[in-house]
Amino acid sequence: MTDILKETSERYISYAECVVQAYFVHVFTAACHYVLMIMAFDRYVAICNPLRYAAVMTNKMVIKLSAAAWSLAILLVTIMLGLTVRLSHCRSKIENPFCDNASLFKLSCEDVTINNVYGIVYTVAVLSFSALSIFITYVKIAAVCKTSKNKALNSKAIKTCSTHLAVYLIMFFSGASMTFLHRFPEYSDNRKLASIMFHIVPPGLNPLVYGLQTKEIRQKIAKLWWKTPK
């Protein structure tokens, strides 16, 4: 964060620090997708099988799903970064606002075909799996809402699912753009904008998107608004 206040020529990071930063950036990215998939499943059970919700989404199940999300992210990212750190590096300039896998293997003058292929396959697999699972989940939720005559249930389902879907779509498109634009140097400015959006917009929106659904928070904000001198 302090580098933002420095001149471009004074922004330095060691290779080891860059690898560590890239590792946590990718683990965070992958885990976010998996956690959003778990949240979609949670909504599916709550809306489509409300009587079984307490039996399905137990504390043990939540812990298992969370552990699986983080473990899978750590495993796949460790393999990806392992393929990159084995390379020698003949360059020293990172063409990105922060370190990531593509920025690291671009520092090498060796053949990086394996890194490119693994990166693309990994990204497509994560994005496709998350998009497909969330799409199927929401289709089933929409089918239940369409056949249900409970207006209160449908209204609550729409509010809950729309916010989750909005956060997911922002994360999906900014993350996909950030990854694929790395392969097209002429769009470097667009890639930098997408990478910044991915790490700022979804986390920044989360308190608003999820917090404003809570009645108590909405009432508190309303009280503060009316008490503020106009």
TrEMBL record:
Q: Where in the cell is it found?
A: Cell membrane
The record's principal subcellular location, in a coarse class, is membrane
Name the membrane topology term.
Multi-pass membrane protein
- Domain of life (superkingdom): Eukaryota
Q: Pfam families under this entry?
A: 7tm_4 (PF13853)
Q: Which GO terms describe its molecular function?
A: G protein-coupled receptor activity; odorant binding; olfactory receptor activity
What UniProt keywords are attached to this protein's entry? Cell membrane, Disulfide bond, G-protein coupled receptor, Glycoprotein, Membrane, Olfaction, Receptor, Sensory transduction, Transducer, Transmembrane, Transmembrane helix
Positions of the G-protein coupled receptors family 1 profile domain: 1-210
> InterPro entries in the record, alphabetically?
GPCR1_Superfamily_Member, GPCR_Rhodpsn_7TM, Olfact_rcpt
Keyword Protein biosynthesis belongs to the record: no
The Gene Ontology CC terms held by the record are: plasma membrane
Q: What is this protein called?
A: G-protein coupled receptors family 1 profile domain-containing protein
Q: Which organism is it from?
A: Danionella cerebrum
